[in-house]
Design brief:
The complex is a heterodimer of chains A (347) and B (284). Chain A has 347 residues and is of the alpha+beta class. In chain A, 24% of the residues lie in helices and 37% in strands. Chain A is built from 8 helices and 20 strands. Chain B is built from 13 helices and no strands. The chains are: A alpha+beta (347), B mainly alpha (284). Chain A binds chain B through residues 50, 52, 71-74, 77-79, 81-83, 85-90, 98-99, 101-103, 146, 150, and chain B through 178, 180-181, 183-191, 194, 198-199, 202-203, 281, 284.
């Protein structure tokens, strides 16, 4: 049985459609991330799952039970807020105890849960402190701990790392994933940070303008985006309009673009002659043959060099481990057919 | 701190704090002195505890204390109890919320005496309420509602007059609680009452205490509502003080006045402490 089953969910605020016909299912113990730009509907979807909003249409099932109209206080979910939302007048221990106390859990069980969570999250020394005496990272851990003491079927995260500095963010990111695995929790995580989504998730739901663009594993989203939006949003991508000239061999197609000709591996024949062609900047192999491009900008990034190049006045990006290309140089490169992706023109 | 710096601070504070202390200090000094026989307007001025001993022995004094505390405590509780749900309701702006807020605060602009007269008109023997109840057929004949022995009229008037003040203080405090904190409580299983008891009340305790104390002090010293709409068989401490003064017994009036000040001080401290204990959220 799926942990969360969302069927044809829509949410309108007056004339504005925040979510339109969203259907997703989440497996038990799965870590699913809702990813998209600001205003794409990811937080709305999270609030619908947690019960703070009611959908205009559609059904939400948690553990097989229809909870579409069940208020948040009666749902078997726990939410970690972006702002942490700790109770400022209660100590860390009282914050951790809030949920179990509401659920009328016995005091011995409450104590066991707090001991367990505070030990796993390294909060034992902070139990008697008030939230304003803690650092951002500690507050985030209390927020996570408070959700964990509820032992929910589903744990929800609303951009929990956005208030942390870069180093702490990496630490807490790893910690959240570890805890999620350790407790065997089903998790839904909202972020607009694609690096965060790619590094943490079992699957990612990419949302755009209130619609699901693609639901897939991080690897598949990166290497096989289905739409132009996903290709562009996840990682860097060079996308060009092109025309399918014909088949070179079985499953290998010739596509002509404004910067040159590409061979593309595709099991199925393209649906239309007009297509969009996409490849990642790091897929370009600089060689002595292939497409010619002029280097207009060069940025050394440590483990690679980022080149902005131009062919026929069309700018695009190439990433290489070579460091000898300089601004004004003409380079030549090719892209393996397996690493070129065909996108439908209308996506 | 150098002497010069100390003098500078005192000099800067004198126009504001000094004036307040001088005015309060003078009143308290005169009242306390008069209650012990000094500053007599129509006799010998000398130290005496006679006025206190006589007053403590009077039944009317004890009844006035009880009555004033009854009015003070209940007015403070009713005003705050009514203001809380309104403050929570008006926490987030909605269409018409500003207008509703303004209407609710309107009693602050109406003088207590005017309000009392208007209220008496409504509940008098031939007033609007009696006529309305008869028109509905609920009452067959007019009922005497004015000057009721339990002082319900005074409590209604005090609550009507003071609730907007409590609302003013509580609205700001309730609005300062973030949505996320309330949503977190809800997400952790707290219903409306638990969200109030365990989150809103403890986080607004200071405003609530301030409202209760100020309302209590005002209501415990009520004169105008009591004189116009209060029961005829009971007197508030202010009424008793004025009646002694009317008879030229300034020393007894001073005893009542000092008692009133002590009750206001001690009563408000007790009320604030009790409110803190109950609302702190520590009582599970």
């Amino acid at each position: 049985m799926v942990a969360i089953d969302i069927e044809h969910l829509s949410k309108k605020f007056g004339d504005f459609t925040a979510l339109s016909d969203v259907s997703i299912d989440v497996q038990p113990k799965e870590f699913v991330t809702l990813l998209g730009p600001s205003g794409c509907g990811k937080t709305t979807l999270l609030k619908l799952i947690s019960g703070f909003l009611e959908p205009t249409d559609g059904v939400i099932k948690i553990g097989g039970l229809d909870v579409t109209h069940v208020p948040p206080e009666k749902r078997d979910t726990a939410l970690c807020f972006q702002s942490y939302a700790l109770f400022p007048h209660l100590t860390v221990k009282e914050n951790l105890e809030f949920g179990p106390r509401q659920k009328k859990i016995s005091s011995s069980e409450r104590k066991a849960r707090i001991d367990d969570v505070s030990e796993k999250l390294d909060l034992t020394a902070q139990l008697d402190k008030l939230p304003n005496q803690l650092s951002g990272g500690q507050q985030q851990r209390v927020s996570l701990g408070r959700a964990l003491t509820m032992r929910p079927s589903v744990i929800l995260f609303d951009e929990p790392l956005s208030n942390l500095d870069a180093k702490l963010r990496d630490q807490v990111r790893i910690e959240i994933r570890r805890i999620q695995k350790e407790y065997g929790l089903t998790a839904i995580y909202v972020t607009h940070d694609q690096a965060e989504a790619l590094s943490m998730s079992d699957r990612i739901v990419v949302l755009n303008d209130g619609r699901v663009e693609q639901v897939d594993s991080p690897e598949r989203l990166y290497y096989a985006p289905k739409t132009r939006f996903v290709a562009d949003f996840i990682g860097d991508a060079n996308i060009f309009p092109g025309e399918v000239v014909g088949a070179i061999s079985n499953g290998l197609w010739q596509v002509e673009t404004g910067i040159g000709s590409f061979s593309v591996t595709a099991l199925e024949a393209p649906k239309t002659k007009s297509v969009s062609l996409c490849w990642r900047p790091e897929s370009a192999i600089i060689d002595t043959s292939g497409i010619k491009a002029k280097v207009v900008h060069r940025a050394f990034q440590g483990h690679f060099t980022d080149l902005i190049v131009e062919t026929n006045e069309t700018p695009y990006r190439v990433q290489t481990k070579r460091t000898d290309a300089q601004e004004g140089d003409i380079i030549q490169f090719s892209v393996s057919p397996d690493e070129v992706i065909l996108l439908d023109k209308d996506t | 701190m150098t002497l010069r710096r100390g003098l500078l601070i005192i000099g800067l504070l004198t126009p504001g704090l000094g004036l307040i202390l001088a005015l309060i200090g003078t009143v308290v000094y005169i009242a306390v002195s008069q209650s012990f026989g000094f500053y007599s307007l129509n006799g010998i001025s000398e130290f005496s505890t006679e006025f206190w001993s006589k007053m403590v022995g009077r039944k009317i004094f004890k009844r006035s204390i009880q009555y004033s505390i009854y009015i003070g405590v209940l007015s403070a509780i009713f005003s705050v109890a009514l203001a809380y749900p309104l403050a929570i309701w008006l926490r987030k702006p909605f269409a018409g919320s500003n207008l509703i807020g303004a209407i609710l605060k309107a009693p602050l602009l109406v003088h207590g005496l005017v309000a009392a007269f208007l209220f008496v008109n409504v509940i008098s023997y031939h007033g609007i309420l009696n006529q309305f109840m008869q028109w509905l057929g609920i009452w067959s004949e007019p009922r005497r509602l004015q000057n009721d022995p339990n002082a319900y009229s005074v409590l209604i008037l005090q609550t009507w007059k003071n609730m907007p003040f409590a609302l003013l203080l509580l609205t700001g405090a309730v609005q300062s609680i973030s949505d996320d904190v309330l949503d977190a409580a809800r997400d952790l299983g707290a219903g409306k009452w638990d969200r109030f008891r365990r989150v809103i009340a403890p986080l607004t305790i200071s405003s609530m205490q301030a409202a209760m104390v100020i309302i209590f002090i005002g209501a415990v010293a009520d004169f105008s509502f009591q004189v116009i709409a209060g029961p005829t068989n009971k007197q508030s401490l202010s009424q008793l003080m004025v009646s002694f003064k009317g008879r030229g017994d300034w020393h007894s009036a001073a005893v009542v006045g000092v008692s009133l000040m002590v009750i206001a001080l001690v009563g408000s401290a007790i009320l604030a402490a009790v409110a803190r204990i109950i609302m702190r959220g520590r009582i599970k």
